[in-house]
Every structure is written in structure tokens, then in C-alpha cells.
Design brief:
alpha/beta, 29 strands, binds 5'-O-[(S)-butoxy(hydroxy)phosphoryl]adenosine, Rossmann fold
Length: 653
């Protein structure tokens, strides 16, 4: 897999480290540089600081119980309710008229819910769920686009102690069916349809197909998203959301105190085999960790308007659109949209109109915006922004600089946060007021973490060498297991480097990384993104970051195939149309930076790269295109139309 003696990577050098402006530091939530050390000395009790951000119905007895490691338990004996922590305590604490959610719809609609209004909506729906027979411990599947009813349904479930399993609305009927089945879920909340770009899209037809294919019967609540323009019928066991909620208007439902270790939600994510993995997150540890990281890393304060552009159907949306910000009493902005619909001003227009303080997005979004040009952010007032963040993929220095300059006005610190569905919240990142930034490196581990870069034998590699990104200590937000499959949990994350005989447990989430002499980690990507060329191991990410340094390049994806060597797929910025000159520069640059071994066999130019709906470039598909193989299902793509263009460019190159 990763060759420890292979290509040493150019790590961002210390002299490029940046400090945040003093105005940021003065007002930041976490400013004590001693925090890293304090968490070392006090571990694991340091995590009481996270638990202290919540209100507990019953105090916990033990911070960490490791008797069944790696099935760790946090804050044992404690009881709490997540909906109470995200709503009631703010309503009672004087923030009832403070905005909890600002929603921006696809057609320019907007809605605001104060904490009090959100509380009312959640209570009514919690009562409705109760009437449908949903009880404590029953998994409710939610299949909704980014509309307010999605967080309302999540919090209503949390209120009555029913774990939710949110399935991303863009997934197929087939995927929905597998997830309903796998989660033993008899209840579903969905909608008639929603808008994809300008067009109405029938969601309910997908649901009906999914449910038909199941042996179990699924009680379904349908939100009328599209109104009269789009008629839908309700069959037996299907209920209209508004009718249910109207029937329960004004009802209050007491939040059910849950054991800290009880499941708050399930989140399915894809694994290496076909079967989806149901990642289990808990009520106490997860919520405390989401709140703590939202406070320490995103620097959220109650008076902030925070905008995380992720879809709530993914973990980023769970932790940093819903649970983290609402636990802290912040205003969270959610948008149903795409960065270029109705136009390329969309993101910056929303920041401007809502005076957004903290903006958190994915590198692919930044790269797209960079490609469109700086005039779009330039014509909006972005001066409300205080902090910027990225998540989901490594961000290379060029887009980092562009983000810093053209969105952050050269002032806002940027946090590049590495984490995963399984970690529940941030793990590797700078603390914005404490740690200097190095464009291209995510940062050190958060306080309390033991981040190690290991070779195949599990030994730590020297700085500058690629290795496996592993975590030597548990943390409150970690996944507890895979739903109904403890064995697979052990197999997927704990087998590689742990020493069960010695009771030494090391978590490995599948990424390769390199650390510099200052302990800053640059994530290279999944180990399956590490390619083998002529017996040498190369990171596709590493080659990509070199390509992205070439002027004119907007996006790059590199794949390897045994017979063909390195293939680089590239899209260019507007105004740079001399492809052969760019190709030459790319090849030269790679030879100089990494070595001739990494020189691409082919550079394929495309107007866009194929992406999943969550914005990840589909490298697997590009590998198949490079190898001239028959392509599988491309329905998971956001832009399937691009595939034909790329295939014909490959044939002609
Ligand atoms: C994978 C996890 C966690 C939220 C988003 C996706 C990659 C995530 C970074 C980053 C480099 C990153 C990793 C990780 N990743 N953040 N800042 N730098 N890579 O969650 O779907 O569970 O994906 O996303 O490869 O393993 P996910």
C-alpha cells in the first residue's frame, strides 16, 4: 500500500505558516496555547470540557470506560436528550426569539425559524411520530432534501428517543430500500418531490418503488415540498406531513432522557464491499464532541450566523449544520441548492444577504469558484466573514490562497478539517486562534488526540514520509460500532495496527498522510487513491496538487492503471485555452517536483470532472475510462453528461 521509502512529499514549509489577525484572536472561543498540553495531562478527563457544553438530566459517572475496547463507552451513567440540548434550554434561557435556522430555498424562497418556532415545530412532529407508533429505540429513516422539515424531523426523533437514519435524497430507490432494510426501519419521512436546478423532481415515485420492493410495511410521512404544482396520491400507510402536524399543533412532548451511550443516529456510508456500513453515533459522546469542535474549531458563538454548505444527508451536515451549531445556540444557515444555480453569484449573494460569520465548505466548491473567476465574490460584500473552513478533500495551496484572498479578504483564518463519518467530528485541524496555518496541510491533531503516521509494520514513519493516518486514542465522538455488525467494525477499523493481546487499540480510517517536522499533517487521500506505477507507490493527491500549481489549471484528478501509467484529467480556468502548452507545463512540473516516474502518460482536458452528489471527484470511474473498460452505473453522478465527453477525449489522445 503506502511505500514508506517511496516518494517523500514536499510538505508546506514552516515559513509559509500564517498567523490569524489579532482581532480574530482577541474574540476567539479558544485562545489558550496551553490547551494541547492540558489535554495531554488531563486525558481522558479533559473531555469533560465537551460534556460541560451540554445539559444533563443525570450526571455521568465515568468519563471513559474502556473495559470492552475498542467498544469504548463515554460519559457512562449520564442521561440527556439531544432535542432538549438543541432547543429547550435555549428557549428557556432567553434566546427564544433568536434565529435558529435560516433556510434558503432553490427558488429564492427563504424561511427563518426562531428557537421558539423550531421548538414548536419539533414538538408537533414528535407528537405525530408518537401517534404513528414510533417509540424509543425505533429507527426512523428520513429521505428529504435540504428543507427545514429535515432538521425538524431529526430533532423530533431525538426528542422521543428514536434514532434517525438520514438517507441522502439524491440516492436511488434501490439504495433507500437497502438502508430501510438494513436499519430494521418501519418508518420513513420523505417528500413529494424537490427541485434539482430548475426542474421539479419526483421523489415520491422513488419512495414507492423502494417500499414496494420490501417485505416489511413502512409507514410513510410525506412533506408537500412542491405544492399544488405537483399532485401526489397517498396510499394506505402514507400520511401528509402538514395534516399530521396541524392535528398536533401546540402539543408539547417531554424530551425522553437517553442514556449517554444510546444511539442518537445511524449514518450509512459506503465501504469497500457492496454492503453499506451503518455507522452508529451516540447521544452523549457524539453531541458533546459535535458541540465542542463547533465551538473550538469553527469558533461558533450564539450570535453568529454559520453556513456549512454540506447537505444534511451527510455527516458534515449532521454535525455542523444541525447538532453542533444548534447545541451552541447559533444561527445555522441551510441552503437547498447548487453553487451555480440560478447563477454563479449564489454563494456570495447568500453570504452577503445573511451577513454570514463563519463559512464552511468543500475544496471542490472553492475550485469551481476559482474556475468561474474572482469577479463573482468581488461583487458582493463579504466583510461579515470571520472564519473560513474546508472539509472533505485535501485542499491544495493554490485554491487555499484563492479562498483566503478572494473570499476571506486576505484576513479570515482558514481551518482545513480532516475527519470522517466514523469520527463524528473534526480530528486533524488547526485551532484557528492558536495554531498557525500552512496552506496544504490540515494541521496537528486536535487536543486529546494521538495522531500517528504509520508504516506497514505499524511503526511511526519519519516526517516527510507517506504513511497511514492512525489514531492511538479514543475520543467521545467516535463511532461505537457498525449497526448490527460488531465484527465488521473490528475488521474495518481496528485490525490493521492494533495489538489486542496487549490491549492496545489503534484506529485506522483508510487515509494516507504525511507529517512535517512541526507535526502538521497533510492528508494524501484514501489509501485506495495511492497508485502503483512501475513498482513505485504514488499518491494521486500528490500528483494532483502539483498539477494544480500550474497556472490555468482549475481542477485535476489523477488515476493509475497498471498498463497505462498515470492519467491526469484536467479542467482549465476561463481564458486559458492553450491546452498543449498547459500539458507541457504539467508534465515538466511533475517531473521536477516528483520525478519522471510520475510523468503522466496522458493529460485529458475536460470541461468538468465527474463528481458525486457530495462533490467528490469519482476517481474510480476515471480509472475505468483510462483503462477503456466498460462503465458501470453512473447514476450516482451529479454530472453524468460529462462522461461521454471524457471517453471520447481519451479515445482520441
Ligand atoms: C474522507 C471521509 C468528514 C466529512 C466529509 C466526508 C476525506 C475529509 C478531509 C480533509 C483531506 C479529507 C478523507 C476521509 N477527507 N476531510 N480536510 N483533507 N481529506 O466524510 O464521507 O466519511 O469521508 O474524506 O479521505 O477519509 P466521509
Amino acid at each position: 500500500m503506502v511505500d514508506p521509502n517511496g516518494s517523500g512529499r514536499r510538505t508546506p514549509s514552516a515559513d509559509r505558516s500564517r498567523r490569524p489577525p489579532s482581532s480574530f484572536v482577541e474574540d476567539a472561543n479558544v485562545t489558550d496555547p496551553g490547551i494541547h498540553e492540558a489535554f495531554e495531562t488531563e486525558w481522558p478527563d479533559c473531555w469533560e470540557r465537551a460534556a460541560d457544553l451540554l445539559e444533563w438530566d443525570e450526571p455521568y459517572g465515568t468519563v471513559l470506560d474502556d473495559a470492552d475496547a475498542p467498544f469504548y463507552r463515554w460519559f457512562t451513567g449520564g442521561r440527556l436528550n439531544a432535542s432538549h440540548n438543541c432547543l429547550d434550554r435555549h428557549v428557556d434561557g432567553g434566546a427564544k426569539n433568536h434565529a435558529a435556522i435560516r433556510w434558503e430555498g432553490k427558488h429564492g424562497e427563504s424561511r427563518t425559524y426562531t428557537y421558539r418556532e423550531l421548538y414548536t415545530a419539533v414538538n408537533a412532529f414528535a407528537a405525530a411520530l408518537g401517534e404513528l407508533g414510533v417509540g424509543e429505540g425505533d429507527v426512523v429513516t428520513i429521505y428529504l432534501p435540504t428543507i427545514p422539515e429535515l432538521p425538524i424531523a431529526m430533532l423530533a426523533c431525538a426528542r422521543i428517543g428514536a434514532p434517525h437514519s438520514v438517507v441522502y435524497a439524491g440516492l436511488s430507490a434501490d439504495r433507500l430500500a437497502t438502508r430501510l432494510e438494513a436499519a430494521d426501519s418501519d418508518h420513513l419521512v420523505t417528500c413529494d418531490g424537490y427541485y434539482r436546478r430548475g426542474d421539479a423532481f419526483n421523489q415520491k415515485r422513488k419512495v414507492d418503488n423502494a417500499v414496494l420492493s420490501l417485505s416489511r410495511s413502512v409507514e410513510t410521512v410525506v412533506v408537500d415540498r412542491l405544492g399544488g404544482a405537483f399532485e401526489h396520491d397517498l396510499a394506505d400507510g402514507q400520511y401528509d406531513y402538514d395534516t399530521l402536524v396541524d392535528a398536533h399543533a401546540g402539543t408539547t412532548v417531554e424530551p425522553v432522557p437517553r442514556d449517554a451511550e444510546e444511539m442518537l443516529f445511524l449514518m450509512y456510508t459506503s465501504g469497500t464491499t457492496g454492503e453499506p456500513k451503518g455507522v452508529v453515533h451516540t447521544t452523549g459522546g457524539y453531541l458533546a464532541y459535535a458541540a465542542w469542535t463547533a465551538r473550538a474549531v469553527l469558533d461558533l458563538k450564539p450570535e453568529d450566523t454559520h453556513w456549512c454548505t454540506a447537505d444534511i444527508g451527510w455527516i458534515t451536515g449532521h454535525s455542523y449544520v444541525v447538532y453542533g451549531p444548534l447545541a451552541l445556540g447559533t444561527t445555522t444557515l441551510m441552503y437547498e441548492g447548487s453553487p451555480d444555480y440560478p447563477d454563479r453569484d449564489r454563494l456570495w449573494e447568500i453570504v452577503d444577504r445573511n451577513a454570514v460569520d463563519v463559512f464552511y465548505t468543500a475544496p471542490t466548491v472553492i475550485q469551481a469558484a476559482m474556475k468561474w473567476g474572482e469577479e463573482y465574490p468581488a461583487r458582493h460584500d463579504l466583510s461579515s466573514l470571520r472564519l473560513l473552513g474546508t472539509v472533505g478533500e485535501p485542499i491544495s495551496p493554490r485554491p487555499w490562497e484563492w479562498y483566503h484572498e478572494h473570499v476571506g479578504g486576505g484576513e479570515c483564518p482558514i481551518v482545513d478539517t480532516w475527519w470522517q463519518t466514523e469520527t463524528g467530528g473534526h480530528v486533524v485541524t488547526t485551532l484557528p486562534a492558536i495554531d498557525g496555518m500552512k496552506p496544504g496541510a490540515a494541521g496537528p491533531g486536535l487536543p486529546g488526540h494521538d495522531v500517528r503516521i504509520l508504516d506497514d509494520a505499524g511503526e511511526e514513519v519519519e516526517p516527510g514520509r507517506a504513511g497511514y493516518l492512525a489514531l492511538g486514542r479514543p475520543w467521545p465522538g467516535m463511532a461505537r460500532t457498525l449497526y448490527g455488525n460488531d465484527e465488521r467494525f473490528l475488521e474495518e477499523y481496528w485490525r490493521e495496527f492494533s495489538d489486542p493481546e496487549d490491549d492496545e487499540w489503534i484506529y485506522f480510517g483508510g487515509d494516507a498522510a504525511v507529517v512535517d517536522a512541526d507535526g502538521y499533517v497533510t492528508v494524501l487521500g484514501r489509501v485506495d487513491d495511492v497508485i502503483s506505477v512501475g513498482g513505485h507507490r504514488l499518491s494521486t493527491m500528490e500528483i494532483e496538487s502539483v498539477i494544480l500549481e500550474v497556472a490555468g489549471v482549475a481542477e485535476a484528478a489523477v488515476v493509475g492503471a497498471e498498463a497505462t501509467g498515470v492519467y491526469a484529467y484536467v479542467s482549465v480556468e476561463r481564458g486559458h485555452d492553450d491546452e498543449s502548452a498547459i500539458e507541457e507545463r504539467i508534465k515538466e512540473r511533475i517531473e521536477t517536483a516528483i520525478g519522471p516516474i510520475a510523468r503522466p502518460e496522458a493529460v485529458i482536458f475536460a470541461s468538468d470532472l465527474p463528481k458525486t452528489r457530495s462533490g467528490k471527484i469519482m476517481r474510480r470511474l476515471l480509472e475505468d475510462v483510462a483503462a477503456g473498460e466498460e462503465l458501470g452505473d453512473t447514476s450516482a453522478l451529479r454530472n453524468p453528461e460529462i462522461v461521454g465527453e471524457i471517453q471520447s477525449s481519451v479515445r482520441n489522445c
